[in-house]
Amino acid sequence: MHSPELLKGTLQTIVLKVLGDHGRMYGYEITQRVKELSGGTIALTEGALYPALHKLEADGLLNTEVVTIGKRVRKYYTLTADGVVLSRDRVSEFLEFIRTMSQVLQVELNA
Amino acid sequence: MKLTDDHIAYIRKDLLYRGLVLESLQDEIVDHICSAVEEAMRDDGKRFIDAYHDVLRSFGSTSGLRMVQKQTLLHENLKPNRMLRNYLTIAWRNLHRHSFYTAINVIGLATGLAACLVMVLFIMDELRYDQYNDKADRIYRLEAEVKLGDTHFFINTRSAPEGLALQEELPEVESFVRLRTLGSYLVKPENGSENTQEKRVAWADSTFFKIFSVPVLEGNAATALKQPSSVAISRSLAQKYFPNTSALGKVLVLDNNYHAKVTAVYEDMPVASHFHFDILISMIGHWPVTREAAAVNWVAENFVTYILLKPGANAQDLERKFPAFMAKHLGPELAKAYGNDFTMEKFFSVGNVYRVYMRPLTDIHLYSDVRGELEPNGNITYVYLFAVIAGFILVIACINFMNLATARSGSRAKEVGVRKVMGSLRSHLMRQFLTESILITSAAVLIAVGIATGFLPVFNNLSAKSLELPWQSLWFYIVLLVAAGGVGVLAGIYPAFFLSAFRPVNVLKGRGNGMAKSGVIRSALVVFQFVISVFMIVSALTVNRQMQFIQNKKLGFDKEQVIIVHDAYALRPNNVEPFKNEGLKSGAIESATISGHVPVEGDFSWRSNSSFWSEGVDAAAPENIVSMQNWSVDYDYIKTFRLHVSQGRDFSADFLSDSSAVILNKTAVDRFGLGDNPIGKRILTFRNLSDLDLHNTTSFTVIGVIDDFHFSSMKRDIAPLGLFLNKSDGNVSFRFKSDRTAEAIQHISSAWKRLAVGQPFQYSFLDEDFGNMYRAEQRLGQIFSIFAGLAIIIACLGLFALTAFTAGQRTKEIGIRKVLGASVGSIVLLLSRDFGKLVVIAFVIAAPLAWYAANWWLKGYTYKTEIGVLVFIIAGSVTFIIAMATMSYQSIKAAGTNPVESLRAD
After folding, report:
1. How many distinct structural domains can be found in chain A?
2. Most CB contacts within 10 A, which of B167, B175, B767, B883?
């Protein structure tokens, strides 16, 4: 498990990227998908995910869609046009960050 | 494994119990937990309740859940639009709940804003006069201040050679243009048969289009008025006489005499111009006016002259050169007239003034009221006055708003207290109250625009303007928006401060109402409202009384039952007398007179002024010269207008010598110093006006004296006047018998058609012409009445709501009083007394202010009404009665309620 401090700055990036790759998703699905991708090393806490989703929605980066299943109400998220652009920017920004970090820390990537 | 509905319901309830209340999050969390629980039950084979608690734990249990909720809420609430929506929702609910106060607020404010809007349109229209000229800042009109003995006046006509001489001799002057107006002309196209009267005609120099920015549509602006016998005409005139063809090169006939070729068609002059001419006649050629324009005579002053300064030239420097300039040119000519020992120095040393000055073009409309104005001008005083009234009405409306808001504070005190306890900051509350007031003002602005649209035609009718709301202008909308926001903040800021300052401990303990009652500021505001109302009522009454005074004043002539047929010179040369005699054949006509001079001012009524002196005085001394109106009349003039001969006799055909006789009015007798027995004495004047030679004079014997009569506006003193027996065929006036008006007109018009074939029959009634002289003042009176009415309506709306509010607050007190035996009357008195007092105080403050203002306005009149106590009594009682009536509705309603109703409540 990675430390929560490391995850904090990348939460939005992860959410945006996952939504971008996968299209329509609901909250629980996102956590499961991230867990699966990280081989169980990253578990998004619900406490961080929902505020982040609501913030992204309020900023106009996410669209929502509500589907009623029996007594349950499921809220799906998709990227807006702005969200798609931001997702791409965030990912490349993060890659740049990793490259810089590798130089700073004097380690080879792809090792 | 799928969860059952019971499971879901359990989770939902449990989460709510744990404090998850945020609607937008609830569904989502429920779904999330359900999914996780299902997975745990499926993968690990757990029981529902164990799986649920495991999942909850991964959320951080209850505190974790609440943290998620808090975090989400924080993100959402930081968005400004959500905050705004919250404010708006609460504001809307509040306004809706108190729809009575809201309605009064909106209506009062809308009325005030509409009035304000109309006033602002009026003011803007007045201020943009002559601004259409590109060179407006360099164009000046020449004017002169003249003081000769007793006569003192300002005049805008200059001598013919002055403009050219200025341009040639003074380097600052780039160009000049002269205009000469001579009343109306009868106009027809060359091969037409019917004449039409055209009033907007001027003779003009060819530089007209170079100096004024009037676009020329056809023809060449540079050469248009340079050819002899040519005219330039406006687009609408061209369409009128030459429909569907080009007017260029066509010929117009003026006064059946002058044939003039159209060399240019120009766009109609803008409404906001101090002159509007449809025909401009060239000043080159051999017609009388053009000869006068070419003559070098510095004494005859008949041309309105405008000069264009070079860019960068200093107007003050130029003006300083005028005295020397005038002395050089006018001096020798005056010396010739008055004898050789005349010098300008001597002329000035006895207190005479002759000063030429320049008036900026854009000042003419609002600041100028000199002799010879081309059209009636506006008045800057009225612009200021209207601005002040507009401001006052807006302030009254805003005051209503503040008063109602603070008065209602009692009922909102608890709300403020609870909000503060719940953690609301003062700034939140202020924003809340400001949102409410901006909501109200926005609604009011919308309604105001509606009211203004409906009211503008009425106002246009009153003010003789054609104002429109500028729908196409972006600025209009910006101003409306700013007004909604600005007035909203202005009117809402005091209540916002006031209400948000409540201390929660006090208001929740029930001591908040004390603040609502301590309305010193509120009382002051009510007083202020009524001060303005009383002031406006007194002003309106004064103006209307003065108008009534003028209508009813003994004029010295009888203005009723006289019909004046204009432009009688169309009957020349042989038909003027026959027309008069033909008219007299009808039994409906009592008498008739031929004279261009009639005892009212108007564009058909002639005036001529000349210098006279009595026999035996030193005519070389300017103080002995009397500047007197000399009117040419016939034998029937005094009889027809019913002037009163107090000494001597009327003109009579029995005396051949009457051709060199004069009948003076009393003022003239005094001015000449003819004493108590003027009959038989003689007065002299120059024989030839273009050659002022003291040795070449002619004399007239006084045969009669008439009482002074008001032949010009009552703003001025009655001037000296002499009636001379002479031909003057401008108008023919008929006195007809009462109740036979239609018959008289019928008869006269058929006589005109027989004798003046193809000429327009133009007539007016003397009493209407008299009324027209005071049109501007009548308008002022009407406008004042309307806005005074508005002011008091708005003030009373406020009072109405305030009484309703106090009555509401004192319901219980009233109930108890009634139970103890108070009568309805005593309770009405109790409720009305406080505000009644305020109205009385307002009256006491307003009365002296209004008296001062009314006096100031009346100063403009030589003949005026007394302001009198009556005006104040009327204004005071009107205000008081209206205010009382407004309040009594609410008070009686409150007093009439059954005490059981009010006391049962709690």
Report:
1. 1
2. B883
